[in-house]
């Protein structure tokens, strides 16, 4: 299995089918509010450190947790014809889980992997859903975050349909300027569907 960053790989339409059930980043306010809520409910586990390359879930496994990244960075990706395709990048302050499994209660099709030493806290899906059933504010936050997910997916779909690598870069950096401080360029290049060399030229121009 190789890690390829070229513009020619799978179609935007095919990748967007995989994007539908991914979620990671919501705004800082909503993620911190959710973290506080889970902390006060006593269902948030102690911090856990992941090594670079360590995976919290792989295809065929059930998602049993929702994770909050305290420090570090992670990626969500899938494999198609032996090539890796990054669909999401997450870093400190973000929420991450395999939402396809979270929602459908079926095994995931994705990998979630630390791309550097990363500290996370987690709550079980069972505890999280149980709290949401008894707390109207939690349910409201969840609805808001799913709305954010839909907005992110629409932006990502548009990114994938834009032929210009420079414009794709500009759109992503405008939405997530912190991304370039947190994530190595080779992963950003893959996320942007371009080669590392193309991204380097854009950054130098």
What does it look like?
Helix 1 (12-19) runs antiparallel to helix 5, helix 4 (125-134) crosses helix 5 (136-161) and helix 8 (185-191) packs across helix 9 (196-204). The chain is built from nine helices and eight strands. It has a domain at 12-144: Jelly Rolls. 31% of the residues are buried. The protein has 205 residues and is an alpha+beta fold. Pfam families: cNMP_binding. This is Crp/Fnr family transcriptional regulator. Residues 22-121 form the Cyclic nucleotide-binding domain.
Portion in helices:
40-55%
Topology, number of strands: 8
Given helix and strand content, the structural type is alpha+beta
CATH superfamily of the domain at 12-144: Jelly Rolls
- Alpha-carbon distance between the termini? 32 Å
Which spans have pLDDT < 50 for at least 5 consecutive residues? 2-26
Q: Strand content of the residues, in percent?
A: 15-25%
One letter per element, helices H and strands E, the order comes to: HHEEEEEEHEEHHHHHH
Strand order of the largest sheet: 1-8-3-6
Rounded to an integer in angstroms, the radius of gyration calculated over CA atoms is: 17 Å
Instruction: Sketch the major β-sheet.
Output: 4 strands, antiparallel
Give the number of helices. Answer: 9
Top-tier CATH class of the domain at 12-144: Mainly Beta
Report mean pLDDT, rounded to a whole number: 85
Protein name: Crp/Fnr family transcriptional regulator
Domain Cyclic nucleotide-binding: 22-121
InterPro entries: cNMP-bd_dom (IPR000595), cNMP-bd_dom_sf (IPR018490), RmlC-like_jellyroll (IPR014710)
Pfam family, one: cNMP_binding
């Amino acid at each position: 299995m190789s890690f390829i960053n070229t513009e020619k790989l799978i179609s935007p339409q095919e990748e967007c089918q995989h994007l539908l059930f991914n979620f990671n980043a919501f705004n800082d306010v909503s993620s911190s509010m959710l973290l506080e809520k889970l902390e006060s409910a006593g269902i948030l586990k102690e911090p856990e450190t992941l090594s670079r390359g360590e995976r919290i879930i792989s295809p065929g496994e059930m998602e049993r947790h929702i994770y909050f990244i305290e420090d570090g960075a992670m990626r969500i990706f899938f494999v198609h014809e032996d090539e890796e395709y990054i669909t999401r990048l997450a870093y400190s302050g973000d929420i991450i889980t395999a939402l396809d499994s979270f929602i459908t209660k079926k095994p995931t099709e994705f990998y979630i992997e630390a791309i550097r030493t990363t500290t996370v806290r987690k709550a079980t899906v069972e505890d999280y859903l149980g709290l949401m059933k008894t707390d109207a504010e939690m349910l409201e936050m969840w609805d808001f975050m799913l709305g954010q997910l839909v907005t992110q997916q629409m932006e990502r779909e548009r990114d994938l349909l834009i032929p210009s690598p420079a414009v794709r870069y500009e759109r992503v950096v405008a939405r997530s300027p912190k991304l370039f401080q947190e994530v190595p360029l080779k992963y950003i290049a893959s996320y942007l569907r371009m080669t590392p060399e193309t991204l380097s030229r854009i950054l130098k121009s």
